[in-house]
Amino acid sequence: MFVSGTVMVIISKTVPDTPRINVTPASAAHAELLKYWSVLTGRSASSLCSSLLEETLNRKLEEGSVHPTAVRLMEEVIKNREALLKFDHKQNLIFEQMRADQEYEKIFKDFEKLKNGPEGFQETLSTKPIGEFTDKEWSQSKKTIDLEGIFSTADKIFELFKEDFSSRESYYDDPDMYGAGLEECKKIKREIFASLKNAKSKGFDVCEIFDAINKSRSYLNDNDVADFINDLTKDKDLTKDGVIDGGIY
Prior knowledge:
By secondary structure, this protein is mainly alpha-helical. Helix content is 65%, strand content 6%.
């Protein structure tokens, strides 16, 4: 509201004795600016000035340029208001609980008349909502796996069992059978990679898995690794000093 170039800012709050502060712009140009700004944005002048005042106060509070005594007094008033808010909140909780109990009894009576009876009612209560966007489309697009970490861990495992793979590749004396050993190595490596990918998708740390394999190297060969990883990741109780099959790794 404008009166002779004066902007009236009304500070409203839910407690009594709300102060009204008349703010006079520093210049007539500012008053005209605020007037046209409010008209062009489709809001009242008092609403525009209130928002600008709030932004300025928040910025000054962040900068620490507000008088500390004023800030302390304001905080004490807010703390005293918490008591009233707590009472209103507790009353609201009681009211909502009563309303929920009444609705529960009404719905339960309706379900008793149905074929499934109480069982169907409990099934309805346990049903979880599924969002078409949030739980289906969007969640699917956000699911990613750190393949770089999996490749890195797989390479370290292959290096750890390098001698086993080399021996397997050259196992066949017949030159025509050399390719069979190579294919067997590829198959084993694919199984290791698949087991690491599966473990990662379950939330396991592939670096911890490699540490466990490294500590168990004395009784593992290349063909055992994939099964070993799958055994490790049957549950999420993976620790560096865990016990597996009666042995310490």
